[in-house]
Specification:
With 238 residues, this protein is of the alpha/beta class. It contains eight helices and five strands; from the N terminus they run H-H-E-H-E-H-H-E-H-H-E-H-E.
């Protein structure tokens, strides 16, 4: 008679039982050692649903996702200038297709573009690019395709698209109601670079650039956290 496989039938259940006990003991020890560290930062776990499924905790800092009007929700995650340019193009397509195919207006759609890492410098207005364009361009690893130099204005904010390139106007998306979630971690890093390059304090640089965000721009603790929270609030992520 063939012997049962080590991980099949009774033998498998016995193995998993022993493993489960060991993991549980290890987890308990870890939890005790970490309890104090997380006491001040962990939000209370959300109660399970009626059928026992996990659901995410809710934080008031993320309630703005639910305050955007819209029958449909979509968020774009951008971390490079190329990804940002794609998001601008496809966000425009999203509004156009919903208008032409479904008769939906801009107020029927909730759209968020997350700007982090190398796309974060474009979250600041023309005045900041005129003043700190060299630093911002270096951080973004971006030069104007025509001049091959760092832009003197925010390259992605024109209301009218350059006919020789894809539509690149965040100003038009702002009019439609698109919200821009700006990574605060990246913003602090950028403020440090501005401080280094221009001989001012990082605090002064941070205050200046955060009071000069593009329209509909809002700081979020981190871009990647905003992506996570958007998905938990029912936004499709692209």
């Amino acid at each position: 008679m063939m012997k049962p496989h080590l991980y099949g039938g009774v033998a498998r259940r016995s193995f998993l039982s022993r493993m489960g006990g060991g993991v549980a003991a290890l987890g308990a020890a870890w939890g005790v050692s970490q309890a104090t560290a997380h006491a001040q930062t962990s939000a209370p776990a959300a109660p399970p649903t009626a059928d026992g499924r996990w659901q995410p905790a809710r934080h008031t800092a993320d309630d703005w996702f639910d305050q955007l009007p819209g029958k449909h929700r979509l968020a774009f995650d951008t971390s490079t200038p190329d990804r940002l340019e794609d998001a601008i193009q496809f966000a425009g397509n999203y509004y156009t297709a919903n208008k032409n195919g479904y008769g939906l207006e801009s107020g029927d759609l909730a759209v968020v573009i997350v700007m982090r890492h190398r796309s974060a410098p474009f979250a600041y207005n023309d005045a900041m690019w005129a003043k700190y364009g060299g630093t911002l361009g270096k951080r973004a690893e971006f030069t104007d395709p025509k001049t091959k130099e760092a832009p003197k204005v925010n390259y992605f904010t024109p209301s009218i698209a350059d006919p020789s390139a894809r539509a690149r106007g965040m100003a038009g998306l702002i009019k439609l109601g698109v919200q821009f979630a700006v990574c605060d971690l990246s913003t602090h890093a950028i403020a440090g670079l501005i401080a280094r390059d221009h001989g001012i304090s990082a605090d002064a640089a941070y205050k200046e650039i955060t009071t000069n965000l593009i329209g509909n721009g809002r700081l979020v603790p981190a871009g990647i956290v905003a992506v996570n929270r958007a998905q938990e609030r029912g936004y499709s992520i692209t």
